[in-house]
């Protein structure tokens, strides 16, 4: 720690506060970043990390507080001002233009007038020198999420910043790509640059960060040296209480259990220019087991979910079979009536209608399957029954809310996700398909959802989980398959699966030949 | 031969106002703003241009006035949709309705008055070359402006940094804002440019096409210009092609009607619309290219969170 005191602070933040309406997103935040350090900013979703960073980058205006840059007080009124000071940012969302090329995207954030071809050449040279190869002429819409992040990093580096802010950079990377990123970060630190690293992945933070600042509910709850902490002590600081570990009882007699969900040669042409075609996907999920599908975002998971859930119908009715019957030609309702339940990735606007109450959302998805319970004679809705069912789910899933029956949009992301998952679990479906079950959900709620999914499977249902979070899949699944470029590998039983094997498959090693590729690598 | 030249000249005259208004709207939409008020801005340009030309006796001053009136009128739309973040569709529609009404009121004293026509270009010797002389060197000044404008917009959008920035705003205004690009300022300038173009197109109607003031004389051309932009998938050269196809079929069917071809006149009158749509749909059948050229944030109000 003493080493850090010797070093001058590049950035000092004192009492920074941001209030949105009645919510204090950041409450008197203090933060010091020394020159040449990797500083972690830890916190649950909604702890105020993004708000803080947006204020540092000038896209949000603080209500009060001071920022010092190199010892001098500064007001960062816009991202342009931040860039002039020497602050660069690698965003998690909303920062690349899909219809433009990589070089054009980079040019837009540089304020010099040099021609695109010069910028492309510079970007190419820089990207190779950091081992993050990039083709500047490719269209962003055609690139994988990992490649897009490279553009962001190269774009940031070309501005030669002193402080680089990375917002959840590894959430979209394969383990191998993440290793590459860490090498780059360490090299930047050796060059004397400072890095503010935002993450909720504790192992990573322990591995590369020199110091950490932990936020909870908009307040700083502690500074620490992550190398001297354990993952569980860090988690306790973030969450404020112990996080219950997920328990997965061993599955027994799976091989002989009936196959409840069967996918046979599922193939789909791309619907839009940037969509991924599905290529001959085969998968069986039996009663009592949880199968996980891993993969870097944008490799066809969304398209696969749409096809299996019935948002998009199949030409070949036999390509999706539920409980032994062809379901490929049936709509979502048809498949629900066969005993399947679905939780899409997008919560607002897909999983729930934002401006409708929770009870109304419940009725919307369940009126067909639970018609007798919720709809009376003459098509009149039984409001009382719907309301009490909604309350039952709210209690079972521990959904925290401000009103008895609030609008879906009024709930935080994690709480809404608990409600949506609970709404489907409440039916005791025999086939459950979930896309990104805990994306943006805090650790406590995530553990709750995962435990509920495992228990559903052990009670005799087939559960299919699509997720980008490998930790989650290893916690949940009895076997893990990997989706890459629209193809699905054969599932690896959890006893044989390792991060490295799954990571290689995520990076495009041939499906079903993980062992072989390992030797080559 | 003379007849052919005359027909070609009338085609150019019919296509010019569509081209100018559509090129202006193309820039507006490329920045992510949908201004449905083209018809209103056009008719305001027409009445302003005619009035100024009639009162000063100079059609050139009239043309300048048309541009200024169009730009000022679009400023109203810009303040509403960009500063006050009103719904762009509703605001654009009301701009058209307001323009049609206001121009009728302003123009009551001009009805039936003879106007000043902008003279066609005449360069001794060159214009006198048979056939091509009049086509290349003998048209009205606004025709040359329209061609130069199309070329300039193509160059601006696809060859300059500022043009790239403008396109990026149309693709995603939140990304652009995150990079520190002044989204609202760019959109203001684009909308005003679009208004100036629509005004110029209106000035062409009342100072060149039919040098007089008639209520509703824009006769739906603003709407055709809007449709051209979409069917041309936001590409300037396709807008040019679309405007000329429309102009050609329009003039062609007028001649056909005059010949008394035994086809219902209603069908002939609808031909320009059909032909333009069919041709533009055929050239933009590459879905991927179309998608890449469609401004993804078109019509969405932008309110930076601060």
Rg of chain B, Cα atoms, Å: 20 Å
Q: Could you give the distance between the termini of chain A? A: 39 Å
Q: So what's the overall shape of chain B?
A: globular
The assigned structural class of chain B equals mainly alpha
Compute the average pLDDT of chain B. Answer: 91
General shape of chain A: globular
Unreliable stretches of chain A (pLDDT < 50, length at least 5) are 1-5, 512-521
Poorly predicted sequence stretches spanning 5 or more consecutive residues of chain B: none
**How much β-strand is present in the residues of chain A?**
15-25%
Helix content class of chain B: over 70%
Indicate the CATH architecture of chain B.
Orthogonal Bundle
Kindly describe this structure.
The complex is a heterodimer of chains A (521) and B (306). By secondary structure, chain A is α/β, with parallel strands linked by helices. Chain A folds into three domains: 238 residues, P-loop containing nucleotide triphosphate hydrolases (Rossmann fold), CATH 3.40.50; 190 residues, Rossmann fold; 78 residues, no CATH class. In chain A, 35% of the residues lie in helices and 23% in strands. In chain A, helix 12 crosses helix 14, helix 14 crosses helix 15 and helix 18 packs across helix 19. The radius of gyration of chain A is 24 Å and the shape is globular. Chain B has 306 residues and is mainly alpha-helical. Chain B has a single domain, classed as Orthogonal Bundle (ABC transporter involved in vitamin B12 uptake, BtuC). Chain B is 73% helix and 0% strand. Chain B has 13 helices and no strands. Chains A and B meet through helix 3 and helix 4 of A and helix 7, helix 8 and helix 13 of B.
């Amino acid at each position: 720690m003493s080493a850090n005191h010797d070093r001058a602070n590049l950035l000092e933040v004192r009492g920074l506060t941001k209030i949105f309406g009645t919510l204090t997103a950041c409450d008197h935040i203090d933060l010091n970043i020394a020159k040449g350090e990797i500083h972690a900013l830890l916190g649950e979703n909604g702890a105020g990390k993004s708000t803080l960073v947006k204020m540092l980058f000038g896209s949000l205006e603080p209500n009060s507080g001071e920022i010092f840059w190199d010892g001098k007080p500064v007001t960062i009124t816009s991202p342009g001002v931040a860039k002039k000071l020497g602050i660069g940012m690698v965003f998690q969302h909303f920062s690349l233009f899909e219809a433009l090329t990589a070089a054009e995207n980079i040019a837009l954030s540089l304020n010099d007038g040099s021609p695109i071809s010069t910028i492309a050449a510079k970007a190419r040279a820089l990207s190779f020198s950091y081992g993050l190869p990039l083709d500047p002429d490719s269209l962003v819409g055609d690139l994988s999420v990992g490649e897009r992040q490279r553009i962001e990093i190269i774009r940031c580096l070309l501005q030669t910043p002193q402080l680089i802010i990375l917002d959840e950079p590894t959430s979209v990377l394969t383990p191998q790509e993440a290793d590459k990123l860490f090498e780059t970060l360490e090299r930047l630190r050796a060059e004397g640059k400072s890095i503010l690293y935002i993450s909720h992945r504790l192992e990573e933070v322990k591995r590369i960060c020199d110091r950490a600042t932990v936020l909870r509910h908009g307040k700083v709850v502690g500074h620490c040296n992550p190398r001297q902490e354990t993952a569980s002590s860090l988690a306790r600081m973030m969450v404020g209480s112990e996080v219950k570990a997920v328990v997965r009882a061993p599955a027994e007699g799976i091989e002989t259990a009936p196959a409840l969900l069967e996918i046979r040669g599922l193939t789909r042409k791309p619907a839009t220019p940037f969509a991924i075609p599905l290529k001959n996907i085969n998968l069986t999920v039996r009663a009592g087991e949880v199968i996980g599908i891993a993969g870097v975002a944008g490799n066809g998971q969304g398209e696969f979910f749409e096809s299996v859930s019935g948002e998009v119908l199949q030409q070949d009715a036999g390509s999706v079979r539920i409980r032994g019957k062809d379901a490929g030609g049936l709509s979502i309702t048809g498949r629900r009536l066969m005993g399947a339940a679905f939780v899409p990735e997008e919560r607002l606007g897909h999983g729930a209608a934002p401006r409708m109450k929770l009870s109304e959302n419940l009725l919307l998805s369940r009126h067909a399957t639970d018609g007798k319970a919720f709809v009376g004679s003459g098509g009149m809705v039984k409001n009382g029954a719907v309301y009490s069912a909604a309350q039952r789910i709210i209690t079972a899933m521990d959904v925290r809310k401000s009103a008895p029956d609030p609008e879906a949009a009024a709930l935080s992301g994690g709480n809404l996700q608990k409600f949506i998952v609970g709404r489907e679990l409440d039916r005791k479906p025999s086939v459950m398909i979930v896309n990104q079950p805990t994306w943006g959900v805090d650790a406590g709620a995530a553990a709750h959802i995962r435990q509920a999914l495992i228990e559903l499977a052990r009670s005799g249902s087939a559960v299919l989980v699509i997720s980008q979070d490998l930790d989650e899949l290893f916690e949940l699944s009895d076997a893990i398959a990997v989706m890459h470029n629209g193809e699905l590998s054969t599932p690896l039983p959890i006893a044989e699966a390792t991060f490295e094997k799954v990571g290689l498959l995520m990076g495009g090693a041939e499906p079903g030949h993980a062992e072989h590729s390992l030797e080559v690598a | 031969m003379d007849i052919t030249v005359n027909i070609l000249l009338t085609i150019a005259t019919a296509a010019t106002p569509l081209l100018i208004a559509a090129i202006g709207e193309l820039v507006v939409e490329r920045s992510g703003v949908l201004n449905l008020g083209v018809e209103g801005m056009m008719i305001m340009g027409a009445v302003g241009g005619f009035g100024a030309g009639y009162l000063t006796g100079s059609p050139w001053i009239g043309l300048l006035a048309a541009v200024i009136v169009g730009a000022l009128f679009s400023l109203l739309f810009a303040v509403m949709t960009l500063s006050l973040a009103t719904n762009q569709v509703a605001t654009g529609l009301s701009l058209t309705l307001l323009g049609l009404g206001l121009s009728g009121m302003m123009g009551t004293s001009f009805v039936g008055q003879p106007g000043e026509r902008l003279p066609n270009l005449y360069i001794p010797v060159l214009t006198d070359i048979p056939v091509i002389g009049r086509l290349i060197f003998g048209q009205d000044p606004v025709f040359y402006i329209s061609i130069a404008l199309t070329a300039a917009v193509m160059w601006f959008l696809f060859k300059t940094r500022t043009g790239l920035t403008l396109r990026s705003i149309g693709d995603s205004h939140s990304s652009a804002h995150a990079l520190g690009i002044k989204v609202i300022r760019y959109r203001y300038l684009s909308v005003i440019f679009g208004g100036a173009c629509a005004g110029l197109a209106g000035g062409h109607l009342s100072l060149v096409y039919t040098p007089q003031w008639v209520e509703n004389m824009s006769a739906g051309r603003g709407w055709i210009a809007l449709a051209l932009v979409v069917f041309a998938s936001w590409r300037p050269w396709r807008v040019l092609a679309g405007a000329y196809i429309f102009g050609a079929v329009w003039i062609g069917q007028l001649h056909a009607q005059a010949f008394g071809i035994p086809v219902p006149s209603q069908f002939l009158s609808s031909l320009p619309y059909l032909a333009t749509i069919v041709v533009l749909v055929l050239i933009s059948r590459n879905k991927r290219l179309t998608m890449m050229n469609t401004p993804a944030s078109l019509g969405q109000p932008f309110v930076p969170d601060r």
